[in-house]
UniProtKB/TrEMBL annotation:
GO aspect biological process, one term: type IV pilus-dependent motility
Cited Gene3D superfamilies: 3.30.70.60
Protein name: Pilus assembly protein PilO
Listed Pfam families: PilO
Organism the protein comes from: Thermoanaerobaculum aquaticum
Length: 179
């Protein structure tokens, strides 16, 4: 009877340990998964707490991007550029002789767009033109400036020829509806 009880006890113990060891292993695995999920929830709550800060940072960076795109646009914006130059000439005594956009020159992360300009003006009006041009929000460089005196009567004393270079961020994109 004792031997039967011992054999029955060993059998029950073996069956329970076999059955319980699988359950214990499952409990350990699921406990590890639960801790991993709790950690992800804590990280999510920490990120949620920083969400207003991220939104504020996004708004600041977006504002900075818009400012930089005015300086270095992603399109050539020919109409806008011509309107600004025309407005400059109307603020002084000028006569445009030529405004000739040239071919694009691809550089590292931007494209150069040279524009040959020839105009007639008075000395001080020409200086004001370049001063106002320097105050544009868009980057415009003036290169290869040549000045010559005009020997004909009239309001203009100089003829000026130069190349304006403006810049476009990235590849030149076609303008929608521009002519």
């Amino acid at each position: 009877m004792i031997l039967g009880a011992v054999i029955a006890g060993v059998g029950i113990w073996g069956a329970e340990s076999q059955w319980l060891s699988g359950i214990e292993q499952d409990i350990k695995t699921r406990t590890g998964e639960l801790e991993s999920l709790k950690q992800k929830v804590r990280e999510g709550k920490a990120a949620e707490a920083r969400l207003p800060q991220f939104r504020e940072e996004f708004a600041r960076l977006d504002s900075e991007l818009q400012r930089l795109l005015r300086i270095l646009p992603t399109q050539k914006q020919t109409d806008e550029l011509i309107k600004k130059i025309k407005a400059l000439t109307e603020q002084g005594s000028f006569r445009f002789v030529a405004f000739e956009p040239q071919g694009f020159q691809k550089k590292d992360f931007y494209t150069e767009w040279p524009i040959r300009v020839s105009l007639e003006a008075g000395y001080h009006d020409l200086a004001r033109f370049f001063d106002r041009l320097s105050k544009f929000s868009r980057i415009i460089n003036v290169e290869t400036l040549s000045l010559a005196a005009l020997n004909k009567p009239g309001p203009y004393t100089l003829t000026a020829g130069f190349t304006m270079k403006t810049f476009i961020y990235g590849e030149v994109k076609p303008e929608g509806g521009a002519k």
